[in-house]
């Protein structure tokens, strides 16, 4: 199904928090689309909507008001995580195309309900796993597909979340009822990239983790009406000197998961929210070599080792990471553009199946770590739903994706 293109696509933004700014990329998408409406339950959010998208914006207190008004053809949902499933299902059943910020939902059952609503209504669903469009992910993916390290056998990811105290422990992200866990909320990006690089989906998980530091910080605040940018500061160091943490903190600040994928690839993911530095390190090991990134933005590189040797930091080839020097605005632009172009008939690279599988891995790893690290098998989607989405290019993560031009190796 595509959106009626006889008129400008009317876009609504649901939830005007920190991530709502991605909707400003609509104007640069090259698609005849415009943000015409927004909804947020708070007066602060509704005021922020007009500041972001214009004083003449139609603003409502709930997404249902926009549905009832017939005001929008598509929605960009940037509301808090625990609201994603309910809002997405309502919009999809109303025939409104949905861009749903990751994670798709905070439980596997909710994610499958969103998938079912999209399949039953035949309404476009797109999940904003923007890190798929990051320069580092595209570069690593292109090297894997080109065969530089042979057949992938293992993928490891270490995530040093140096801004964790400010980003995740001063608001609702610190509460299980709101996010389930940061192994889902924060890690869903990396679990998705692991699947992409490995060419498979997780089918068994074992999780470990604990609240090891931030639970000991006594200074708490509600930060009502504020966004993360209002309190963020690099001066908040060391981590135990943080102030204004959320009154409730019951998610883990350090966690890890072991995964067995459906194609036999073994994978691991580790996350810590109080490191001094903030970046992701992936290691991909194949039958003919390995690759590893150092930095994950434009100041970083990906190195490949594919000759036998002892220790050598330089490797056999080095590839510069393009994209933004900080953050992921370039990936946000590509993701929003892909969503809008999918509404006028262009096939998207990202499949909702991949988004569901990231939720499955993260949510069930969380269950494992909270139940004594017991192994848990990941159920597959019902066949009727997976068949509906199978036409999308990335229903199988092994399928090719758009990639940058072949990078030039730096002689070592």
From TrEMBL:
It comes from the Bacteria. Residues 140-292 form the GFO/IDH/MocA-like oxidoreductase domain. Pfam families: GFO_IDH_MocA, GFO_IDH_MocA_C3. Coiled coil: none annotated. InterPro entries: Gfo/Idh/MocA-like_OxRdtase_N (IPR000683), Gfo/Idh/MocA_oxidoreduct (IPR051317), GFO_IDH_MocA-like_dom (IPR055170), NAD(P)-bd_dom_sf (IPR036291). Gene3D superfamilies: Dihydrodipicolinate Reductase, domain 2, NAD(P)-binding Rossmann-like Domain. Keywords: NAD. Residues 9-129 form the Gfo/Idh/MocA-like oxidoreductase N-terminal domain. The keyword Methyltransferase does not apply. The keyword NAD applies. This is Gfo/Idh/MocA family oxidoreductase. It comes from Gryllotalpicola daejeonensis.
């Amino acid at each position: 199904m595509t959106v009626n293109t006889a008129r400008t696509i009317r876009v609504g933004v649901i939830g005007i928090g920190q991530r709502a700014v991605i909707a400003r990329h609509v104007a640069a998408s090259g698609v005849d689309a415009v943000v015409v409406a927004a909804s947020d339950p708070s007066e602060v959010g509704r005021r922020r909507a007009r500041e972001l998208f214009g004083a003449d914006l139609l603003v409502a207190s709930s997404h249902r008001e926009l549905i009832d008004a017939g005001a929008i053809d598509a929605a960009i949902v940037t509301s808090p995580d625990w609201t994603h499933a309910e809002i997405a299902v309502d919009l999809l059943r109303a025939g409104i195309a949905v861009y749903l910020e990751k994670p798709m939902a905070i439980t596997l059952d909710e994610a499958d309900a969103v998938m079912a609503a999209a399949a039953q209504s035949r309404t476009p669903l797109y999940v904003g796993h923007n890190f798929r469009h990051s320069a580092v992910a595209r570069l690593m993916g292109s090297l894997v597909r080109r065969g530089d390290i042979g057949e992938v056998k293992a993928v490891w990811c270490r995530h040093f979340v140096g801004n964790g105290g400010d980003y995740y422990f001063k608001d609702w992200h610190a509460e299980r009822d709101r996010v389930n866990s940061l192994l889902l909320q924060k890690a869903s990006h990396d679990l998705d990239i692991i699947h992409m690089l490995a060419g498979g989906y997780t089918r068994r998980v074992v999780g470990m983790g604990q609240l090891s530091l931030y639970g000991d910080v006594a200074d708490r605040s509600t930060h009502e009406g504020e966004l993360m940018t209002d309190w963020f500061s690099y001066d908040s160091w060391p981590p135990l000197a943080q102030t204004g943490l959320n009154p409730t903190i019951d998610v883990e600040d350090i966690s890890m998961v072991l995964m067995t994928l459906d194609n036999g690839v073994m994978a691991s993911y580790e996350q810590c929210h109080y490191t001094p530095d903030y970046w992701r390190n992936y290691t991909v090991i194949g039958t003919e070599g390995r690759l590893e990134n150092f930095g994950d933005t434009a100041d970083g590189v990906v190195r490949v080792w594919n000759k036998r040797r002892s220790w050598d930091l330089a490797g056999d080839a080095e590839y510069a990471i393009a994209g933004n020097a900080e953050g992921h605005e370039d990936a946000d632009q590509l993701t929003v553009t892909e969503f809008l172009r999918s509404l006028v008939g262009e096939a998207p690279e990202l499949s909702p199946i991949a988004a569901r599988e990231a939720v499955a891995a993260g949510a069930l790893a969380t269950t494992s770590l909270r139940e004594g690290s017991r192994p848990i098998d990941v159920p597959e989607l019902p066949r009727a739903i997976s068949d509906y989405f199978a036409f999308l290019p990335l229903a199988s993560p092994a399928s090719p994706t758009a990639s940058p031009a072949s990078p030039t190796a730096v002689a070592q």
